[in-house]
Amino acid sequence: MPYKELEGNVIGGVWRGQEPAKELIYFQIEGQDKWFRLEYTGDLMLERANYMSEKLKKKAESGSGIEVGLEYDELSVGDAPHSPATTFNLVSYIQIRV
């Protein structure tokens, strides 16, 4: 299945999370209902996640937003019926537009 493409402004909060062997970043794009999720793995996952989250946070929380271009696909997290499934847009590629 081909990835979807989108350009837009990251607005509001930028959140960090962790799963085993993954560093996660969650953010919203203006005009989109679902949250977007970035996953970092490997040796430099912490450094990469720190860099990207700070870059997104700085402008997004200021109110002006930061323009990005990205490719994504849907990701459902949670095993129904035991816990409600949540659907995110899993980002496979992100580029910050300056």
Oligomer: single chain
- Provide the helix percentage: 10-25%
What portion of residues belong to β-strands?
A: over 45%
Distance between the termini: 30 Å
From the alpha carbons, calculate the radius of gyration and give it in angstroms.
Answer: 13 Å
| Helix and strand composition category | alpha+beta
Backbone shape: globular
Give, in order, the helices and strands.
Answer: EEEHEE
Q: Major sheet, described briefly?
A: 5 strands, mixed, barrel
Going across the major beta sheet, what is the strand order?
1-2-3-5-4
* Low-pLDDT residue intervals, each spanning 5 or more residues: none
Number of separate strands: 5
Average pLDDT, rounded to a whole number, is: 88
What is the overall number of helices?
Answer: 1
What can you see in these coordinates?
This protein is an alpha+beta fold and 98 residues long. The chain is built from 1 helix and 5 strands. It has one helix at residues 45-60; strands at 4-19, 22-29, 36-40, 66-77, 86-96. A 5-stranded mixed β-barrel has the order 1-2-3-5-4. Strand 1 and strand 2 (22-29) form a beta hairpin. The longest helix is centred in the middle third of the chain and has 16 residues, at 45-60. The protein is globular.
